Amino acid sequence: MNIRFSAPTRLREALTVHHGREITALASPIVLTMFSQTLMWTVDTMFLGHHSSLALGAAGLGGILLWTSYSAVNNLSRITGTFISQAHGKNDDSRVGDYAWQGMYMATLTGLVLMLLGMNARPLMDWTGIPPHVLDGAAVYMRWRALSAVFTQWGFALMGYFQGRRKVGVPMWAGIISNLANALLDWWFIFGWAGIEVAGHRFFEIPAMGLRGAALATSCGVALNTTIMFLAMFGSAEARRRYRIHVPRIPNLRKLKDIARVGAPSSVENFVDMSTLALFSTFIGRSGEIALAANQIQIQLLSFSFMPMWGLTTAGSVLTGNWLGASRPADASKYGRQVYKLGLYYCLSLGVLLVLFRHQVFRVFTPDPEVLAFGGVLAVLAAIFQVGDGMRMVGSGLLTGAGDTKPVMLITIGVMWGVMLPGSWWAIVRQGGDVTTAWAVASLSYMIQGVAFWLRFRSDSWQRVKIFSSAV
Question: What is the mean pLDDT of residues 259-263?
Fold first, then answer.
């Protein structure tokens, strides 16, 4: 029977989100996990703000520089989730265990490199032109934060292991517990504690460590987060029975090459994105402290889009990998389109709110009239930017779940280095534009990138990517 649908029916079908509960159930704990990771840095900032302005500024600088270096390799650890999700979709229990172990080996290697870099970063920072005493403080923060670099990379690989199997609750609870520990240790290590006196003896006395204490507290929190996930992985009866996860695997060069082949382009993409945003902010900084303050508020506004969209991005990546692993590419495409719809509806809703309250949102962050003068236009630009950014994130997640990371990398390089960097430099440095001009260029750039990712997803070429090498 040939059934024809009316135009209103087809439109309703096109606008309806299917499998919405399944997608949001997977995405919501990931959002909380992301929020908990961001919260560690926020708690450091809150405590250090009550310690000294120098410590606060040095920690902010050190954190940005350290995370930019991390971004060059983070996705080599995170990409473990792509291999796990596809192996899980295939019901290939052997590969789940194998790639979980190989992902940990890759994370160990990248973590050690980052630790050595962070602990010896001071001589590499003079080019910034920042006062030496601020750089000295930033180097202290980086040195103590870098102690947990291996744990950070292990954590990314372990999140990939759990999320690829849709066990998203474990990373969420590990994040919540470790953040509570980080807050307690921040208070204890930054300001010191007299301890407890029992029978004339004092226990748990800690001297005030200031900046070093904040970094050490965060490193301890990261280590605790990773340890909880380790215990959950090795302590699971199902994981021991199905994946024999407790049985050590030796490093396998072929599987490590698989991880590097798929993960390296994703890491380059991440680094290009992060470094472009860092340089973008330095261009804005040439306009003075008012422009920088407005820029910082703009970034804070956009965080309300970033974290929910990150959850959807990861959920989309997992679902794509699961369905491709099960040799059901049509379902992978169908679910991907639903993730796109959910993301677009969220971004459009947030965009409407930003436009409606464009003259009020900046007042939440500052009473400075000079900064507020930019607020209305920047809020509208934020509404536009986060739509393009949201679609960019969803597209990147879906294609990464398929292992289609090279086109994502090439598109990112082309847009970031071919449009956004030269465009913002020309508009601000050469033409004397202000912070609103900069964000207009950024909004256009991210919209182009979002459209390019959508066209790649729509082509279905990603369905034919093979991430596992042919050898058994």
Answer: 95
- Calculated CA dihedral for residues 430, 435, 441, 446, nearest 10 degrees: 140
Do 298 and 391 sit in the same domain of this protein? Answer: yes
pTM of the model: 0.86
Distance of CA 369 to the CA centre of its chain: 33
- In a domain? residue 390: yes
Q: Which residues contact 103 (CB under 8 A, 6 or more apart)?
A: 77, 79, 80, 83, 84, 157, 160, 161, 259
The last residue of one of the domains, among 198, 220, 251, is 251
Look at residue 6 and tell me if it is in a domain. Answer: no
Q: Tell me if 423 sits within 8 A of 417, measured CB to CB.
A: no
- Do residues 206 and 321 both lie within one domain? no
- Is residue 257 a part of any domain in this protein? no
- What range defines the domain where residue 457 resides? 262-472
pLDDT of 96 higher than 60: yes
Please check the confidence at residue 313 and state whether its pLDDT lies above 70. Answer: yes
Each residue's pLDDT tens digit, 149-186: 999 999 999 999 999 999 999 999 999 999 889 888 98
